[in-house]
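Q: Is it fine to ask for two folds in a single conversation?
A: Yes, each is treated on its own. Send the first.
Q: Here.
A: Result:
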Amino acid sequence: MGRRAGLLALLLCTLLLSGCLGGDVGEASTSSEQNGPITLTVWHTFAAESKEENVFLQSVRDFESQHPNITVDVALVPFGDADNLFMTAAQGGEAPDLMRLSSDQLGAIGEVRVDGFPLLEDLRPHLTPLERSQFEEQALHAMRYGEALYGVPASQDALSLMYNKALFDARGIDYPDETWTQHDLLEAAQSLTYQDVQGLALPVKSAYWWFGFQAGYNGSLFDDSGRPSLNSNGSSLALDWLLDLELEHNVVATGTQTEGMKNQFIASKAAMIVDGPWNWATYEASRLDVGQSMLPVIGETGERVSPLVTYKGWTVSKQSAHKLAAV
């Protein structure tokens, strides 16, 4: 919790103390205004009542106790709509002061301008070299759009294979491990599909889930010349393999989507699930005995299924009214 609280404090202090964060320098606050009452609006995308949200809200309370003149007004927004909601609010002049965004949401936001200004503040001038050194270079790079640093990274996400140990034990099947190929995964899923239980749960038509399998099959989005190569053999083989889980092998329920598969796994109606860490606390809270393993190796290529790694971090609105002028 300390690191996440520190990240929030870093962003809040950046907003208030490191200088003008957008707009006219003439808008600078006086010292008396600095010590007066301030309300900051923060939008987050943590799942409601999740362990992540509880940690975050505690960090907000800790920050408020350390800064009694500052009130933090917190609102939860759906992760899938966070970028659109922020852009709509910003274009209407009602953006929150701080916003939790994913690295893959920054592109669309970075393209938008209001009165010639971007919607997010470039944080490079407001982080010292020592502060920047606290983060991996790759993580900082992921929160850039063009040359601008639009967010401070706070976490990273990637898909993995999670499994219900009780269902494996009941069927006498060994738990997944790093030696599994996609053939082992399919064989186990077939053995674990019985009665009203599916062996595996994942949204087979989702690009986010497909990308990792595409890499395992040596497919690529673009060739060396930068031309789209989605029609490459590896790309099509990966898609065929995923679709066959539902259409041919029947180990994935027809029409599985992200919310439905989570509920399916919680109810012990799916023995395995390919999911991200954002749901791990939810599964633990459901009192499931959950195991976790790496995604399999593709037997024909020797390459492991390599899911996308996305970063989530805190961004500052260019329109924030609470800022001090740079010296």
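Q: Second one now.
A: Result:
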Amino acid sequence: MNRDTLKNLIAAGVAGDTILLKELAQSAAEQLGDRELMAEVDEIFGLSRELPIGLAPLKPKKSLVDLKLPPEVAVIVEEFMVEVRHAEALKRRKLDPRHKALLIGPPGNGKTVLATAIAVELGLPAYMVRYDDLISKTPGETSRNLLRLFSYAARQPSMLFFDEFDALGRERDNDQESGEMKRVVSTLLVQLDDVPSHVVCMAATNHAGMLDSAIWRRFNIRIELPRPKLERFAPFMQDEFKRYGFEPDTSKVDLLDAAMRIQPDHFSDAELFTRNVMRAFVVAEDRGTPITIEDAIARELDTWANGQTRLV
């Protein structure tokens, strides 16, 4: 804490300005990087534990083992997690731990699921940034929301996940972007620079070319998720059925053949297919006309073949 901060703290206390006193105390604790002190300051001022505007819990769906990542992706993910786990050792040697990763790839290929799986593996609470709440029409409010969001995350080891990151981090040279959004990008850059290493920042984008060039430099790990190969869909669907408590008889149904017939572009397509199968199975059972899971798969394959793909 510097001399001016101490003087301002004393002045705010003498004047009885609890709002300013709280802000100065929080700022001092954050500058010291003392998470225990930050928590104590929160308790002293009775701060709400509610999540700030624009932040929502991100619930895990699968483990890294379940994802069956391509080997080249799995290696990068493992290196990233190793550095996060050994961040303190790196800092003692004056090395900056890499704790910010950008996930790049087409929609529906598992970027969000990968981020949550990494959070589970690292034992971190994960939060998703919700742009519909974060972005405000009031000038300057979006930047303030960003500041509160990063400040909240910094209180403890955690993960911040920005999905569809190009919606927030667009190139500032783009003439179509408003002055307000350009200021938001500038605020975001500062926050990404200052975010402590115990906060893992992950962002996902389908349009990497739209990101501001300075944003690229803030992410020291970039993970490209390729479009899944056809043979990866069969084990994926098998795992999806297991989540519902079923395991199709492989002597009666070939999930690789099913994948070839539905021709999924992304994992989300295969997930939709298994979800539709389970819906048909449950409804038939509830109507008193039960069918086997294999029959449900066959019926859904016919539906897809007739071009009647259900979208949700």
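Q: Anything structural to flag on that second result?
A: Two points. The longest helix spans residues 267-286. The chain has three domains: 3-44, 55-224, 230-305.
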